[in-house]
Amino acid sequence: MLTACQSSQDKAKIIQARAQAAAPKPLVINHPSKDVKVVNTALLHDQNGDAIVVELKNESNRTLVNLPILVDIKDAKRTSVYENNTAGLDFALNHVAVIKPGETFYWVNDQVTGQGTTAKVTVGQPDGKVPSGGLPELSVSPPKAGHDFSGPKVSGTVTDKSKIDQEHLILFAVARQGGRIVAAGRGQIKALKVGAKPASYTIYFIGNPVGADVTIQAPPTTLQ
After folding, report:
1. 13 or 66: which leads in pLDDT
2. CB–CB of 50/84 below 8 Å?
3. Taking the model in full, what pTM does it have?
């Protein structure tokens, strides 16, 4: 009986170890990127929540794919109020899908769960590769400003001009006024089919975009 009991315990430990090994791991950046410069960081807050915008510049001559980005937001007492390293977090909340050579990209995380005053940003090494056929080409229409009960918004369409369908496409919107980031938000298109009608997007903001210049960026998420 003792041997059988020990055998059951051993099996349980093995099952537990396998489950732990297969579980999503918190994101860790051991080797920060030397190719990407953090140009600017903005923390935004309004009645709808909090967001962080990180302006990134790819200073290399190569396209970077699946670029991890970690933020640690602290309040006035230097206490951490939000980190985006949680296991299983949505990919776009701690990665940039694609950033081209020399490109400036405005990454937005609008799921920040605490209001902070400062942010530490760490960008890691890309863990994806550019497909041999090149990147899919997406066309984003100019944003049309609007407002409803949820607040200010922009809307438009995205067209897939490539031969690859896109899934879980994330659009990043940043509003700048006088060189300062005043609002930002994200939108999603679940499926963008090649040859189909342009897909519509709607993006709501944290902050006030009224009178500001709005930039929409939609890096492809499905590369091959």
Report:
1. 66
2. no
3. 0.87
